[in-house]
Amino acid sequence: MSEEDKDVTAESAAEKEAKAQAAAEARAARAAARAKAAESQENAESAPKPPSPKQPMLDRIVQILQQEVGPGTVEEAVINELDRHLPTLTISPFRWLETANLLKTFPGLELTYLRNVSGTDHETHLEVVYHLISLTDKQDYCFKVKADHELPQIPSVTGVWSTANWNEREIYDLLGIEFIGHPDLRRIMMSDDWVGHPLRKDYEPLDPEV
């Protein structure tokens, strides 16, 4: 092998070594960056979250309901951070009608506008969700009431908010929740002879083609 060829071979080996060294350094840098990011995320997760700006609203309404309606009225109270930090309360079905009347008339609450009512099948239980707004101070809340899957019954609040009338009929029609005290509880979407409730997760249509 000529001296020139030896020089080329030596240069190629040096280049390969340099490239390997650069690749190793790049891998080490990426690993260090990942470790730093993971550490930062861990520190962020372990750091205490600042309180929600609407936590005082939630604490106040829980206190009012526990005092005015009674202990056990509120089954759960949370801040829904994904929905504008919306105060969200789960109310005992046995206290729901009394709670609804209080929410509409209690000074400082006056939740006179029922914006929406919806129902959901969670398999283990059914749930009705009410979104209420105070037109006085423009504050809104969410209330949930659970119902037994086998015998789903919830007090009707049509007498409190007339808007609930057709909403409750729709939920009764599609999920089979009976609203006790509703003035005209009958199907509103399906025909009167329809079998079952189409939004129940255990619903099996008599005719799969329908």
Automatic annotation (TrEMBL):
Keyword Transcription found: no
Keyword Transcription regulation in annotation: no
Compositional bias (Low complexity): 20-41
Region (Disordered): 1-56
EC number: 7.1.1.-
Enzyme kind, highest EC tier: translocase
Pfam families listed in its UniProt record: Complex1_30kDa
Known catalytic reactions: a quinone + NADH + 5 H(+)(in) = a quinol + NAD(+) + 4 H(+)(out)
InterPro entries for this protein: NADH_DH_suC, NADH_quin_OxRdtase_su_C/D-like, NADH_UbQ_OxRdtase_30kDa_su, NADH_UbQ_OxRdtase_CS
Keyword annotations of the record: NAD, Oxidoreductase, Quinone, Translocase, Transport
Chain ranges of the NADH:ubiquinone oxidoreductase 30kDa subunit domain: 90-204
Sequence ranges of Basic and acidic residues compositional bias: 7-19
GO MF annotation terms: NADH dehydrogenase (quinone) (non-electrogenic) activity
Protein function: NDH-1 shuttles electrons from NADH, via FMN and iron-sulfur (Fe-S) centers, to quinones in the respiratory chain.
Family: Belongs to the complex I 30 kDa subunit family.
Protein name per the record: NADH-quinone oxidoreductase
Species: Paenibacillus gansuensis
